[in-house]
Amino acid sequence: MTNSILFLSVSPFETRVALRENTRLVSYRAERHRTSSVVGNLYKGRVTRVLPGMQAAFVDVGLARDAFLYVREAGGILDDFSDIFPTADGELGAPGPLSSDIGDLLRLGQEVLVQVVKDPLGTKGARLTTHITLPGRFLVYLPTVRQRGVSRRITDPDERSRLKAIIDGFPGNHGWIVRTAGEGRGQPELEADRDYLLRLWARIQGVCERSRAPSLTHHELSPVLRTVRDTFTQAIQELWVDDDESFQEILDFLEQCEPALVPRVKLFRKTSDLMAAFGIDRELEKALRPKVWLKSGGYLVVNQTEALVAIDVNTGKYVGSTSLEETAFAINLEAVREIVRQLRLRHLGGIVVIDFIDMLSADHREAVYRTLQEELASDPARTQLLPMSDIGLVQLTRKRTRPSLERTLSRECPYCHGSGRIKSLPTICLEIRRRLLDSAEAEAGDQISLTVHPEVSHYLQGPFRELLRELEEVHRLQVILRENPVFHQEQYEISR
Question: What is the pTM of this model?
Fold first, then answer.
């Protein structure tokens, strides 16, 4: 049985959420209150551009940038429940692709009720849908979709049938999904959640009718209550929170919807930081490094780029005891579990390419691939996995709804501007030589002042001192070398 503990650290500036499974950190989220997530918010928006060539539209919802609405999210009702895909927490949500033309669904200036499904990221605006999903504690209400179903994470066939029978008995033609937290719940509990969601939808419709676009019509729960609603289930043994007000807010919320979980909520009363006290901050430091060590001595290298995420598996210090094939197989199996943990912890999404150590045995490749499938089944985010190639490459896609951990907790390096590399010292010195010679030809005189970063200065006077000697003896240039510690290492200044 998995031992899971949830941690909530709340301050006036941010809310931090961490989840541990069997003493290992598997998920972390920090929501800064100045830049809170807008996923789940409902807006009355106005269409500002319709793009037939992209089958999409831009919608002004009042955010800094116009949001983006694809045709697949812009209207129509599905007849096949299989096209409803999981949302970020693994539940079922908005519909799949439709055959309608964007011009038939939207026109310039049209007002439309939309929901944010992905936060703005970089230069991209938020992603929208018109297929509203309202999550409760045990149910998700889909007012624009007729079909009904049960979360894919509830695997027992009898339980699925029982829950499906209950929601099939709900009146009306709207859609209902039983969430993972609904497993084992009785009909009265599900009906109470249903009634709450119906009242919420009626209130949203009333606000929408009275408001003018662009405007916010429904704000998602606070980060604290959203975490409790979506994450704090019977599978979580403890929830630690370090804020008195949030502690009481959680207790009040659970008293109404799930009193049995109240004893599991613990208030952290110490003056020290909650995350530091439980060692989570130390684990986060490792999560921001590209190299991840495995217990065997092998390691992963995780590189996040604009186009994709590349994960490389290496033998490292592990040499095995029998053969290279067995060594590769053992490390690849160990790496699979760590890779899935890193995907969850770092919030890595989009295209992911994994380069396993080459294995000659088809049985070994199949075993590694099957283990990867099994581990991904526990991932709350939706993934699509392609077969392993003969050279050990595996490609998968993982649904991305929020920025990665790296982009949340760090920023682009102002020194290398995100490239991760700068010019080498010999390159800088040779570039300076060319500039000095150009300057000598353009202006009369043989004395030139050169100001550089201290490391460049040390290199010119040490390993590369023959460059200055060549300038003096061959080209008759007297170079006066100066240092400026505030210079970028690639920066230099030539003057007379």
Answer: 0.76
